[in-house]
Specification:
The protein is mostly helical. It has 23 helices and five strands. The protein starts with a helix and ends with a strand.
């Protein structure tokens, strides 16, 4: 694939989601609050907290990156955009390392095509480059990557450093010094992002895979390989010690329950989150099955499969299942790429037709709903939006309309190119899945962005609450989630404190119980219920405002 086309394709997927939106509910806005508290100096850099609330999962480096971005950003740059810049670079790092990891694994002699009797087979570097293009397209096509990879959370930092570690272990025989430096940085980064156990397991499995496959040495002597793998293990040991020093080792393993409902939910997550990489990865394991029964399994299969296996087990035994599963996508995309040379024409055609119908239907739905929001026609989608998001008013924006039209035209051209007659390319079966995923993500982040901001952010909740509190200066909080606390702190500029036996502030905010009543523990002799503020689209995100007597 031409490099310029591949770069523009990656940018079209990377930029939307980082530009022109507010922080969304959940981990996105909560992380922003902890970063702001560090940047303002109101929290310890080794123990991030906001109004007494600490992160659920131990992590340091992502919050450091966001806090530094807030401190260094110029006054004219929106703070919530500045904090996304290092995370955009982490997503770019994920894309680059996935490409190079696949490239160096494809240079393995056992991964190369069989030489023809009279020549004419592709050169090793060109073949590996085409396989790497396929792996990058498989990564972009993964449905679970879109939203989580555009949030300012530790999950994005973890996938960036796991991709760097996968690349470093894959390139170790070919670029030993750069790979060792990359492995040390990746192991340290994963540890400071709250995943020291996974970093250690990844490193040990990568070293074992290099020891087993003696054919993938790129001319390195056994002594050189031993020194390189020893350096990686030393880096893993130091990273584990740093994690222990900063109390990042937490035992959060929960054995899965033997219930069909739990297993069904886990399987559903695997199917949609990793689509379309997982069926291709399974096909890779089947088509290359002969190498599994040889004396030494091939490293281009064993290394990414180890990364996938560790992540799947961690996902099954952890609580943050979807964010943990994110770490499997670079390795899963690498495995998917090795299925491309062996796909039969009927299977490739089935993938193309399914992708064409699915993403064309999704894109058409996005356009129809947007037209209904702006013009009121068709009436049924417009009425559905009004019912689900009461109070939302859509306006036409040329800056959203123009890139959406351009992306749709590119999709139409891509479909025409795919069904036309052209030179066969290994990565051709993943062009439509990746292009369709990028198209729908870009349409959502342009045409639907005002609606998504209205529904997925706390801004309207903050505005309505501040309108009832004048002045809002100091507010105590009780049973308020980290996301709401961060939204009031970052977007509302409110000074928040945990509730105390002796009220220190004139106002109190709390989440109601399941029946909508004030939570237990509030002394109603000291506080008067002032208002119940509702989130415009989510009835589970309401809060109660109290005023001190």
């Amino acid at each position: 694939m031409p490099r310029l086309v591949l770069v523009l394709f990656c940018l079209a997927y990377l930029v939307p989601g980082f530009v022109g939106r507010n922080a969304w509910k959940g981990a996105d806005i909560a992380s922003l609050g902890w970063m702001a508290s560090l940047a303002e100096g109101s929290a310890d850099w080794f123990h991030p907290s906001l109004a007494g609330i600490q992160p659920e999962y131990p992590s340091l480096l992502p919050y450091w990156l966001g806090a530094i971005a807030l401190q260094w950003c110029p006054p004219w740059l929106p703070a919530d955009f500045a904090v996304r810049l290092p995370f955009a670079l982490l997503l770019l790092l994920t894309m680059l390392t996935t490409w190079f990891a696949s490239y160096y694994l494809a240079r393995n002699p056992r991964a190369q095509p069989v030489a023809f009797a009279f020549g004419g087979e592709p050169p090793p570097a060109a073949y590996a480059s085409a396989m790497a293009d396929g792996a990058l397209l498989a990564l972009i096509a993964s449905l679970g990557l879109a939203q989580l990879a555009h949030e300012t959370t530790p999950a994005l930092a973890q996938i960036g450093f796991s991709g760097l570690l996968l690349f470093s272990l894959a390139a170790l025989p070919w670029q030993p010094y750069r790979a060792q430096i990359g492995a040390w940085l990746a192991l340290l980064g994963l540890t400071l992002c709250g995943a020291p156990a996974m970093a250690l397991l990844f490193a040990v499995g990568g070293v074992v895979s290099l020891w087993l496959d003696t054919t993938d040495r790129a001319g390195q002597t056994p002594d050189a390989v031993q020194r390189q793998t020893g350096a990686v293990l030393l880096g893993a040991t130091l990273a584990a010690a740093i994690g222990w020093k900063f109390d990042l080792w937490r035992w959060k393993v929960v054995l899965p329950q033997a219930h069909w409902s739990d297993l069904e939910g886990y399987l559903e997550l695997l199917i949609w989150f990793t689509w379309p990489a997982w069926p291709l990865a399974i096909w890779t394991a089947w088509r290359w099955r002969k190498q599994w029964f040889q004396a030494a399994p091939s490293r281009h299969l064993l290394l990414p499969l180890w990364f996938v296996g560790v992540t799947l087990c961690t996902t099954l035994m952890g609580s943050g299942s979807d964010r943990t599963l994110l770490l499997a996508l670079p390795a899963l995309a690498t495995l998917a790429a090795f299925a491309l040379p062996t796909l039969k024409r009927q299977v490739a055609s089935l993938i193309d037709w399914f992708t064409l119908l699915f993403f064309s239907g999704c894109g058409l739905t996005i356009w129809v709903v947007w037209i209904a929001m702006v013009t009121g026609f068709p009436s049924e989608p417009s009425a559905n939006v009004a019912r689900l998001a009461p109070g939302f008013t859509a306006h036409f924006s040329f800056f959203a309309f123009a890139p959406a039209v351009l992306a749709t035209l590119v999709w139409a051209w891509l479909v025409k190119w795919r069904v036309g007659r052209h030179r066969a390319a290994i990565w051709k079966s993943l062009v439509l899945p990746a292009g369709g995923a990028a198209l729908c993500w870009l349409l959502l982040m342009t045409l639907w962005m005002p609606l998504l901001d209205f529904a997925q952010s706390y801004n309207r909740l903050v505005e309505n609450s501040l309108a009832s509190m004048s002045p809002a200066g100091c507010v105590e909080v009780q049973n308020l989630g980290a996301g709401k606390v961060a939204a009031f702190h970052f977007y509302g500029g409110v000074s928040l404190k945990p509730v105390d036996t002796e009220p220190q502030c004139p106002w109190l905010m709390a989440e109601p119980d399941a029946e909508g009543n004030p939570p237990a523990g509030i002394d109603m002799h000291r506080w008067t219920l002032l208002a119940a503020v509702r989130h415009p689209t989510d009835g589970n995100e309401n809060l109660l405002l109290f005023k001190r007597h």
